[in-house]
From TrEMBL:
One biological process term in Gene Ontology: meiotic cell cycle
The SEC63 domain, residue ranges: 49-364
Top-rank taxon, per record: Eukaryota
The UniProt record lists the keyword Protein biosynthesis: no
Organism: Purpureocillium takamizusanense
Pfam families: Sec63
Name of protein: DNA helicase
Amino acid sequence: MERIWNTSPTLHTKQTAGVDSTGSCAPASVALQDPELQQIRLRYRLATPTFATLCTISKAPDRGQVLQKACLATELRSFPLRRGEKGLFREVNDHLPIPYPIKENLSEPWHKAFLLVQLRLQCIPWPNKLAVEARHQLYGERKRMDSIIETALRCIVDILGSRRDGRGVGVALDVLRSVMAGVWEGSDNELLQIEGIGPQRKERLIEANVKTVKELTRLDFWHIERLLSRNPPFGQQMLHKLAGFPLLTLQVELVQNSSRPQVEPVLDHGCGLRPPSRAAWIARMTLNYENKAPPSWGKNTPWTTVMIEGDDGRLMYFWRGSVKRLTGGKELITSLDPKKREELKVTFACEGIVGTIVRMTHQV
């Protein structure tokens, strides 16, 4: 479903949902009474305790905080940390290079989910600490746990969006993209998204200074075969797969809208919002892709997001839509009220594919 947020003046006139007048998170019971948050809860059909927990996420969280909050979903309590699994997760937590180890005793269901998803995103083989039957059972649970975590992350994106927390939305989208792709955004494991590329082939490509999927798409078929020591038609088959990887393009133009009537300033409600400028601007964005045909990755049609963030981290505009809507160029036009000489950051990316981000900055 296409979704648009725009911080027009009418949105500035009420206290931001889930944030009190000091910029801190309001109590979950207060936040749940907000109509916009009620719509978000119904959209994702999460348990009320889960949604109340997600609403307590702080302003401008980091990746670890976003992922941990998603793993606190009540729905994940149906996957308890079994006694036979504790050795595996202690090994993961204490000895493997995960970015967010747990500092407390491992016993809760969220510990299991939090460590398991990090193990997957780091592309680390499982330690040999489980019996074969227990390993198969955990593999089966992981898919269902990932589905719950993805839903919780989407919900967090919308909660932060309702607060106009642009920095938080960007981080939550980064975590969602990573979980869906199975590798962290910005890591050296991006090439592992490609079917047929494993750890050894990835290392050979990195040694040849080919570190991203985009860089691999620019190679000739014979060059790919030479780097990976494969015979034809391996290179042609690989390029056929890569033809569906989204190569997004973004054009942004800011034009001053001198004809817009002046508006009365409103108070800052504590989440980075400022009184709207008397000199409004119009942003014209053109979203497209370089691919010869509409991109398709993993047998699915990707979805994309574009957001405009102010230099203080406030969300000024957000759009979500299918890549199919970009065919021929998708034009988005919105009015903005930036501060004088403010630098605006525009980010365009696929929702579930790492390595597709396009960023631009414009100073007003």
